Amino acid sequence: MTEKESRLTNPLQGEPKPPFPPQHQAYPGLEKEMRPKPDFGEESYKGYGRLKDKVALVTGGDSGIGRAVALAYAREGADILISYLNEHPDAEETVRVVEESGRKAVAVPGDISNEQHCRQLIQQTLSEFGKIDILVNNAAFQMTHEGIEDLPSEEWEHAFRTNIFAMFYLCKAAFPHMKPGSTIINSASIEAYQPEPSLLAYASTKGAIVTFTKALAKEGIKKGIRVNAVAPGPVWTPLIVSTMPEKQETSFGKQDPEQRPAQPAELAPAYVFLALPESSYINADVIGVTGGTPLP
Q1: CA nearest to 261, candidates 294, 296, 237, 238
Q2: 71, 85, 96, 291: which sits with the fewest CB atoms below 10 Å from its CB?
């Protein structure tokens, strides 16, 4: 099977369903090593220039949802700063598809749990592109455990620093530079509403993200900055094959109403919509993309 054949070319047809082949990777994992490869929209997403000359910073933009969002934004006309940890081959692929879409991409590695690095990301966005119109807080850390007694305290802190502290750092640094009409889009999760005990730390951070989003939106509206969130259900990304036990990896998404996980390409349109002027009356909201599992 060729690389192109191993990737979905249409997210509405022939979606792979569990069981998936065993393929556990060391954290944070690489999308290029996954089988089947996630569909991030390269063959299917068609842009219409609706974000022409906008500038977006996307964390976790090397793979998964972040890559799908970066590609969709580029095809809608935006330039992208891609923040990622250390997955260099994946980041290079994201840069490739953004540039092939006719837009500029800058990939910046580093740990967003560090406040100084977050401030540098905002400054580099401004120095490379002159402005920031869209901030997508998408990067996240998770790890599964059998119970609370097996969850190291250091890992609990790391999850919060990566998933919610970084969001605070980036929003705080970006806010003074965002003009009316700018948007912040945060990645929450169905785990904020239907948490699994094995993902205690991750689910807790996602609940915090929902609250953070709603609170910051009340401040942002005074400056014309909208703040919303997307809450995905199960999505086929490197986070799955690098943080879950093999049995869960192979059956991932089976319990969803669709009996499969989403492909990243199926999440990107929600992030595009929330960045468009057409969504100007949507603020402090959470859009669920869950494959049929209702949000409360």
Answers
A1: 237
A2: 96
Helix pair angle (64-75, 268-275), 10° resolution = 50
CB 271 within 8 A of CB 59: no
- 61/72 Cα distance (integer angstroms): 12
Q: How would you write 170-185 as a 3-class SS string?
A: HHHHHHHHCCCCCEEE
Per-residue pLDDT of 206-265, as tens digits, reads: 999 999 999 999 999 999 999 999 999 999 999 999 999 988 999 999 999 999 999 999
CB 142 within 8 A of CB 204: no
**Alpha-helical runs (H) found in 29-149:** 64-75, 88-100, 115-129
Tokens of 13: 């047809």
Question: Is 233 a member of any domain?
Answer: yes
Catalytic residue among 45, 193, 202, 271: 202
Catalytic, 84? Answer no
**Cα dihedral 82, 215, 113, 178 sign:** positive
Residue-number span of the structural domain to which 238 is assigned: 40-289
19 lies in a domain? no
Predicted TM-score (pTM) of this structure: 0.95
Query: Which region, left, alpha or beta, applies to residue 102 given φ > 0 means left and ψ of -120 to 50 means alpha?
Result: left
DSSP E strands in 188-272: the ranges are: 226-232
| Helix or strand holding residue 136 (H, E) | strand 134-137
